[in-house]
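Protocol step 4 of 6: structure prediction from sequence.
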Amino acid sequence: PRNNLAQDVSFELESHFGKNVLNTIIPRNVKLSEAPSFGIPVISYDARCKGSISYLNLAKEVVDKNGTVKVEW
């Protein structure tokens, strides 16, 4: 929200995709940048950082919006 470019991109996404844009925002976060260098997901690296919590909220939003998700491996 503090960055003009981020605000412009958000506006363009909402203008183009409308209600298909999810509400959860993944903030810039040092832990999100560090986790890949250790080869682990951020949720394993630091489950309590804002980035991890945001990704969990995003997953919940996707499931809430689309119902149960079936994953096949």
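Step 5 (inspection) to follow. The two ends are 37 Å apart (CA to CA).
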